[in-house]
Amino acid sequence: MSQSTMRGKVLVISGATRGIGKAILYRFAKEGVNVAFTYNSNEQEAQKIAEDVKNKYGIKAVPYQLNILEPETYKDLFKQIDEDFDRVDFFISNAIISGRAVVGGFGPFMRLKPKGLCNIYTATVTAFVMGAQEAAKRMEKVGGGSIISLSSTGNIVYTPNYAGHGTNKAAVETMVKYAAAELGEKGIRVNAVSGGPIDTDALKKFPNYEEVKAEVVERSPLNRMGEPEDLAGMCWFLCTDECSWLTGQTIVIDGGTSFQ
Q: Which Pfam families match (predicted)?
């Protein structure tokens, strides 16, 4: 799809101040798409990104604060977006939680605890549902759109300490299928993009980061780690008319590592 066809459309994306979310934001902005994006706490970085893409690409970009552990606040967020933008065409659920919020959810099976597991479900599955519902209401008014949830291969490949996250990635991928089945009649396509280990700040926080990186490079036939831009390209593709008959799918981008 040419830039002229996409220019003026609007992407809403959660968690876009770093890593995969930031790469997606820049990919869409480069093509002339206006961007409404969320951040958790770093307002300064969010404003800096907004100014950068506005200056570079001549688009509209507005950051909004969102805590995905309170997904019901998506209703208020979209009301704010309605005031700043005249439409919503694409929604990408990307934000994740880390740190204290995942204590009891990130660890070996025998150390998993209810609160941590519930927090991961809230941030991964419930946040996707609440955001997608609000986005779909707006997309219906403009004749359709594309919704994407980010996922990871931790639900198909054993990853140490990742049981809490992996099971919730499986859950959100199934939720994507249900959403696709029910929103298709509105012209809305819903898919997931599942990444293998991607070289981001989040991964660098893993205590065994260097070990993970070395293993991924060794396992991948392409002999490298995944980069945020690898997922950004697929998210862009899924929002173009090139994918007008693709819905309810999980696209795995893992450098071939899940087959090894």
A: adh_short_C2
Render pLDDT for 111-125 as a digit per residue (tens, 0 to 9): 999 999 999 999 999
Split into its structural domains, the chain has a count of: 1
Beta-ladder partners of 154: none
Residue 129 covered by a domain: yes
Q: Which of 189, 26, 3, 20 shows the shortest CA–CA distance to 11? A: 26
**CB-side neighbour CA atoms (13 Å) of 67:** 5
| The model's pTM | 0.96
Q: State the catalytic residues.
A: 162, 169
Dihedral sign of CA atoms 8, 14, 15, 19 in order? negative
Q: Would 260 be classed as within a structural domain?
A: no
Q: What are the angstrom distances between the C-alpha of 221 and each of 5, 21, 146, 175, 235?
A: 36, 26, 31, 31, 23
pLDDT tens digits for 19-42? 999 999 999 999 999 999 999 999
DSSP lists the bridge partners of residue 250 as 192
